[in-house]
Amino acid sequence: MANTTAAPREVRPFGWYDKLGYAAGDMANDFTFIMVSTFFMIYATNVAGIDPMHLGFVLLLARLADAFYDLLVGRLVDILPAAPAGRFRPWIPRLAPIVVVTSSLCFAPFITGWDYQARLSWVSVTYFVFGLAFSTISIPYGSMVTVISPKPAHRSQLSVFRSMGALIAVLSVLVIPPLFIYDRNAAGHAFIVPERLFGVSIVGGVLALGLYAVCYAGVRERIVTHKPAEGRASFGKTLASVLSNRALAALIVGALAQGLGVGMSQALIPYVCLDYFRLPQLQSLAGLLIVAPTVLLAPFATRLGLRYGKKEIVATGATISAAAGFLLAALQTHNPVVYLVGLSFAGLGQGLFALLIWAFIGDVVDDHEVQTRERDDGVIFASYSWSRKVGQAVSSGLSSWILGWLDYRASEGQGVQQSEATTTGLYTFSTAATGVLFLVLALVLAFWFPLNRRKVAENAAILDARRRATL
Known about the structure:
Layout: E1 3-6, H1 16-47, H2 52-79, H3 91-105, H4 116-143, H5 145-148, H6 152-175, H7 177-180, E2 182-184, E3 190-192, H8 194-218, E4 223-226, H9 235-243, H10 246-276, H11 282-308, H12 310-331, H13 336-372, H14 377-405, H15 420-447, H16 453-470
């Protein structure tokens, strides 16, 4: 049995250093992860000239391997002895340089002259290694939210600050690169300049390194978990116990749907802007308006969650996102303004989910500890991360295969005019996916996920009483 207590060493009270430090950590994560998620596929097809059908298998297999690796990392950080700096915090400086270097190598411009097999090998290996490195830093970072403070209100604040940090990085990555990485050929068709894309990735990596340092300096762990080796359950038993939790099972399914929806949207919007609207810089405005609801809701998300319940708020937002996706798919609009307005409404569910998901996970950890008296922060966070990665894996593979099914002509070089059937198909898939998958998320939260506002408060009171009894 694991015992959890307040940290015995002298630790400053929870405050702004923790909130700003935790925000900096997700800014750092997303300067690399969102860059790869948004631009790697179009780099691989349009710059490296990889066949979309081949790329689909690369993306799917790499992300699936990454998803199962998440579970191993979660178990590892749970069972290794905690360092003086904490159980999760020391992993950040260990992995940050590797994450940054591998993210930039995913966009190497010097492979364009290589033969096809060499290009395919480079794209496969760099993407795979980046995924493993990112998992090894993101699992401990994400798990920290459960030990920075035992109070649900503090965790909601951390979730919002984390999301705000991510939002700054996401806005930077979605809005700024499209303004610099594209040029036009003599025929007026847009194409990516490989050296510019590589340079942008390096700048993002340097910023990420500095932000990881801010995170490490600002955050403190305040809950200490004691897990005697002789009494520790096996990984299989721990995982089975964790996955039997109804709240986590529902969250995993919801995260799969959300990961699929967001992943397909991120992967296909650059192609929609480039080939359907023939306005590559439209991607900047699309990225800005998708995250606009997150900006507007961030100051109120914690209070809305505490007053009305996190699951109720996110389910409502997901329903609005689903309606916007279905409407855009039905309209088949060629008006960029209509498209952008629809994307902003579709971003509502994404924004609320992003703002409150980390507080959801803290609530699930508490619920599991109430039921089992075991605190398995790392495995629970890794289980959520696994579901998100599986969703991203399937979305990456599907998005690339969709290009192949629609006869997207990647092998003919950049600046090629795609057929009308191809561009219309890209638009339809990207919008309809949002509708279907966010509807699934809304239904899961409304009818399956059990942790409403009252249940979360009950669990927090039970755990507070247990910890006071150990003092």
